[in-house]
Amino acid sequence: DAKTTQPPSMDCAEGRAANLPCNHSTISGNEYVYWYRQIHSQGPQYIIHGLKNNETNEMASLIITEDRKSSTLILPHATLRDTAVYYCIGHGSGNTGKLIFGQGTTLQVKP
Amino acid sequence: DTAVSQTPKYLVTQMGNDKSIKCEQNLGHDTMYWYKQDSKKFLKIMFSYNNKELIINETVPNRFSPKSPDKAHLNLHINSLELGDSAVYFCASSPLSGGGDTEAFFGQGTRLTVV
To answer: How many CA atoms lie within 13 A of A44 on its CB side?
Structure first.
């Protein structure tokens, strides 16, 4: 699985878009980019994933660069409840499904 | 309706004791996992089972023994507990093993404190 690099922390004003970057320059062609988050004292929660194309769901949007070496998770209107640690994970086939978590980005949404 | 449920949520026990943590998923998934989150908040996989068969064992001490009576349950038994076993243990499940296009669902965790 690809090694990912994320900033350790970010702040965002409530109601604004939160843009969380992730570098995954070693990602291979069949590896998906996954985003999970962990709100304090809870289990990790799946947010979104993508392979090449940009993706959007009810929680967030995922923008993947054309060369697939980096991506950005966008929370369009951050709320205080979005304060969490956000993990970007490269996840490919043939790896038995295990997720390799890095340190993630601690997002603090401020009123 | 909880998808992945773990019991107990909190567990405080003395060194040397043996304890078990139970996990059940009602999602019909084939694959279940145990992850450990230590005091520095690093999340690391310990075990994975696919249809009751062990497929991942990440060099965990053999005091830890997972058991899967059926594909909806994956329990974790820990013998001779040590102070360093104190952590939060998360159970998870996913629909497929080996697929890149699958999401995992996590339980709420079991906070184990060894005193």
So the answer is: 37
Phi, psi of A2 (to 5 degrees): -70, 145
Interior/surface letters A43-55, b for 16+ CB within 10 angstroms, e for the rest: bbbbbbbbbeeeb
- Express each pLDDT in B60-108 by its tens digit: 899 999 999 998 999 999 999 999 999 999 999 998 755 566 789 999 9
The DSSP code for A81 is G
A28 touches chain B (CB under 8 A): no
Q: How confident is the model at residue B50 (pLDDT cuts 50, 70, 90)?
A: confident
Q: Do A31 and B41 touch (CB under 8 A)?
A: no
Mean pLDDT of chain B: 91
Q: Is B28 on the interface with A (CB under 8 A)?
A: no
Of A44, A93, A99, the CB nearest to B99: A93
pLDDT tens column, A73-109: 999 999 999 999 999 998 765 556 778 888 999 999 9
Of the candidates B92, B111, B114, B110, the one whose C-alpha atom is nearest the C-alpha of residue B25 is B92
pLDDT higher than threshold 70 for residue A60? yes
